[in-house]
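From: lab user (bench 3)
To: helpdesk
Subject: output format question, protein + zinc ion

Hello, I'm new to running complex predictions and I'm not sure whether the block I got back is the full result or only part of it. Here's what I submitted:
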Amino acid sequence: MIEFYFLTFYFGAIIGSFLNVVILRLPESKSVVTPRSSCPVCHHMIPWYENIPIVSFLFLRGKCSQCKTKISWQYPLVELITALAALFFIGFGYSGLSSLTVIFFKFTIFCLFLTHFIIDIKHYLLLDVLNLYLAGLFLFYGFFYHSFIFMGLGAAIGGGIPYLVTWLFYKLRGKIGLGGGDIKLWAALGIYLGPLGIIHNIWLSCTLGALIGIVMIAFKVISRDEPLPFGPFIIVVAVVQIFKPDLIASFLTNFIGF
Ligand SMILES: [Zn+2]
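Helpdesk reply: Thanks, we reran it on our side. This is the complete output you should expect:
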């Protein structure tokens, strides 16, 4: 059994290594398959033994083997998070063939969320292509588990309410509040979360974003005019809603009372 856990963990690390390439190249519309990875500073081609997930970073002590430029912590971190997710979803989640689809559905959703999250922090971008993949997966899943009314209403509310608010805000203040990517992400999430779930997400992620924004301004991490990427808040709330739904339910009943 220990070999199985180790295999799922390392499978996750390899997927994480691929996600790092996606995070690096997708915002620049470059191919995620070719060319092979090289150091961005000295362009030294990275051989396979310097490209082993997690292990190589430790072995190289976080530096390029040629020019000694520091390698970003993002690389081993994404590999580790994806490895732990694979261990959690596949290693511990596996209980027969029938659950295999659900397991891979959940793991893929998690990978897309992680990619979205980091690209938004780095570039203030929620890419359409990732929103489309999410919407496609949610539709596929919903085809078996949800009604079309549930999915349609969720998507309409998820896209509609934030769009209306942004439009009103623009008419009143002449400023764009939310990005189009945030609105599209909510529309996609609405397919899976349904009408009530997406309202919870909009409300909780706005609250979370406002709270963290205030704290970051108070501690001078960011200035008052500096925008925060909003996608990460939507994603953090969605991760809890999708993977730990009972936590949201008990939070809503115990603390808010509805
Ligand atoms: Zn280098």
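A quick orientation on your result: Residues 39, 41-42, 44, 64, 66-67, 69 surround zinc ion (CB under 6 Å). Let us know if anything else is unclear.
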